[in-house]
Amino acid sequence: MSEKPALGDTKLHEDQTRADLENNVKLEAGDAAQRADYQGEQDGHEAPQPTRLYKRRWMIVLLFSSYSLCNSFQWIQYGIINNIFMKFYNVDTFTIDWMSMIYMLTYIPFIFPVTWLLDKKGLRVIALVATALNCAGTWIKVASVKPNLFAVTFLGQFSCSLAQVFILGMPSRIASVWFGSEEVSTACSIGVFGNQLGIAIGFLVPPILVPNVDDMDELAHHISVMFYITAGVATLLFILVVFVFQERPKLPPTQAQATARSIPPEQYSYTASIRRLLRNRPFILLIVTYGLNVGCFYAVGTLLNRMIIDHYPREEVNAGRIGLTIVIAGMVGSLICGIWLDKTKTYKQTTLAVYFMSLVGMIVYAATLSLGHLWVVFITAGALGFFMTGYLPLGFEFAVELTYPESEGTSSGLLNCSAQVFGIIFTICQGKIIDKFGTLAGNIFLCVFLLIGTIMTGLIKSDLRRQNANLLAKAAAERQMLGQDYGATALISEPQTPPSQA
Question: Which residue intervals of 389-407 are DSSP H helices?
Answer without folding.
Answer: 391-403
